[in-house]
């Protein structure tokens, strides 16, 4: 059995010491001021006197001699090598392990760390150190536990709940509104518009955008296809009827919603009190009509036939609802209110009536089945036509005549639905009694309901926002003249010049 000699141990320790010296020198680098002993490597094609430039370190590169732990290990190794062989401490393994650990730590401190785009910047790391994230829901610190994050917002797992239904969000897809998470379906229920007709979510168009139609007054939203799929629309308030909602068919292509049906005027006898109250309204403004002008409630077909036989007044609305006749005709009027059966009217009784011309105006015709306020506004408009003809206003163009008639319709509606303090008060009324002081016709019945008032506001909105030249532009010009000069002076100017005062 062979035993290793002491000389072998000494050689091994010397070789190890020499290696450690070389390794330390390599890691430490050259001392300041010490010349570089390496010969620069020259590649093919370079000159022999090419100067070798050491690699430029970044400004923030920490110097290697800052590693105190490595320096201490190296110093101890050098001191150990300087001792005589007999005095050397051969703990060996412990010192070598410490030195190896220091070398490993030094190697791990690589100043050329590769760029990681997903790692937080140094400023962010200082502003939000790990364990100091704030939950977007409870606003408490998250700490070092589990958390969820999305777009820079963090949540505790138990706080990641839908802000609508309150249940946890377990799906991989969700919607984030600010810092509030939602289930996709919950968010759609809250923010995706629904059609007021089919009650379904309004679909997107080919461009991926939500496209819908909206009523300018009621704000009713509906799918564009409902404009062509024969969805019933109220002939009075213009609202489309939701699916499975009851409505009334008037039998002539018109439909009436239940709200408008509640105050609808159905026959001539029922309309007479309203007609006389509007005549009183004119008389209260010192615009009395001396002749008794017949008034008839008629069906749509009879009104269209009468309009075709009227030689004067060729300007009419696209949907004619009233007519002031000047020619002798035979007109079929509604004699008795029809009976309601299901969603249609039954037992409509009519009678033909020959209209004889005794003055400039033969009769006033109004479409049946419209709410009281709409019927009254049509009567006020047509009575103004009659007043102009009876007072000798001749050859007025459509914009002037229809414009001033629309003003009278608007003023009557205003007197019905607005309190006296907020009604229109011309600067100089036609007579001593103005529309602002004359009581509304509905005051005898104890006022009007909220639904009827809202309808009246809609009818005023229709007049004010009409886009036609005669009825729309004519009204706005006439209304501005009445506001500035008063009704009496405006009418006198029309008689003299055929136009409105500027």
From TrEMBL:
- Annotated stretches, region: Disordered: 28-71, 77-96, 428-449
Q: Which Pfam families match?
A: DA1-like (PF12315), LIM (PF00412), UIM_2 (PF23625)
Q: Which domain of life is it from?
A: Eukaryota
Among InterPro entries, the record links this protein to: DA1-like, DA1-like_dom, UIM_dom, Znf_LIM
Q: Where is the composition biased (Low complexity)?
A: 428-443
- List all Basic and acidic residues biased stretches: 58-71
List residues of the LIM zinc-binding domain.
133-193
Cite the entry's keywords alphabetically: LIM domain, Metal-binding, Repeat, Zinc
Single Gene Ontology MF annotation: metal ion binding
**What name does UniProt use for this protein?**
LIM zinc-binding domain-containing protein
- Species annotation: Urochloa decumbens
Q: What is the lineage of its organism?
A: Eukaryota, Viridiplantae, Streptophyta, Embryophyta, Tracheophyta
């Amino acid at each position: 059995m062979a035993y290793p000699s002491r000389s072998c141990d000494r050689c091994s320790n010397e070789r190890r010491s020499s290696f450690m010296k070389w390794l330390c020198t390599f890691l430490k680098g050259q001392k300041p001021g010490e010349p570089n002993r390496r010969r620069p490597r020259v590649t093919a094609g370079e000159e022999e006197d090419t100067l070798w430039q050491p690699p430029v370190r970044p400004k923030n590169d920490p110097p290697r001699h800052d590693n105190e732990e490595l320096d201490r290990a190296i110093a101890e190794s050098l001191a150990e090598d300087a001792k005589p062989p007999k005095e050397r401490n051969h703990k060996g393994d412990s010192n070598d392990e410490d030195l190896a650990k220091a070398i490993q730590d030094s190697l791990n401190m690589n100043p050329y760390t590769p760029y990681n785009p997903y790692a937080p910047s140094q400023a962010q790391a200082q502003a939000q150190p790990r364990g100091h994230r704030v939950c977007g829901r409870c606003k408490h610190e998250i700490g070092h536990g589990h958390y969820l994050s999305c777009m820079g917002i963090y949540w505790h797992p138990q706080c990641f709940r839908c802000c609508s239904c309150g249940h946890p969000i377990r799906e991989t897809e969700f919607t984030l509104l600010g810092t509030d998470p939602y289930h996709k379906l919950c968010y759609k229920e809250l923010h995706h518009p629904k059609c007021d007709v089919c009650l379904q979510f309004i679909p997107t168009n080919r461009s991926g955008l939500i496209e819908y139609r909206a009523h300018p007054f009621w704000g009713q939203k509906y799918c564009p296809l409902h404009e062509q799929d024969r969805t019933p629309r109220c002939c009075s308030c213009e609202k489309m009827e939701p699916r499975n909602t009851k409505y009334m068919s008037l039998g002539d292509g018109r439909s009436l919603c239940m709200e408008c049906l509640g105050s609808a005027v159905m026959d001539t006898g029922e309309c007479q009190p309203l007609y006389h109250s509007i005549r009183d309204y004119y008389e209260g403004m010192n615009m009395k009509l001396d002749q008794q002008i017949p008034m008839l409630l008629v069906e749509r077909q009879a009104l269209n036939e009468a309009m075709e036989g009227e030689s004067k007044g060729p300007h009419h609305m696209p949907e004619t609802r009233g007519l002031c006749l000047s020619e002798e005709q035979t007109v079929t009027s509604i004699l008795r209110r029809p009976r309601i059966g299901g969603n249609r009217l039954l037992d409509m009784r009519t009678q033909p009536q020959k209209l004889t011309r005794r003055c400039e105006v033969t009769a006033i015709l109004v479409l049946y089945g419209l709410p009281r306020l709409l019927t009254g506004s049509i009567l006020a408009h047509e009575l103004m036509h009659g007043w102009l003809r009876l007072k000798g206003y001749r050859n007025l163009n459509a914009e002037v005549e229809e414009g001033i008639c629309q003003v009278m319709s608007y003023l009557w509606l205003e007197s019905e639905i607005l309190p006296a303090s907020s009604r229109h008060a011309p600067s100089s009324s036609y007579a001593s009694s103005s529309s602002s002081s004359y009581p509304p016709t509905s005051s005898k019945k104890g006022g009007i309901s909220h639904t009827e008032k809202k309808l009246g506001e809609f009818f005023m909105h229709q007049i004010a926002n009409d886009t036609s030249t005669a009825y729309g532009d004519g009204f706005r010009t006439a209304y501005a003249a009445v506001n500035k000069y008063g009704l009496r002076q405006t009418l006198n100017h029309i008689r003299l010049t055929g136009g409105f005062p500027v």
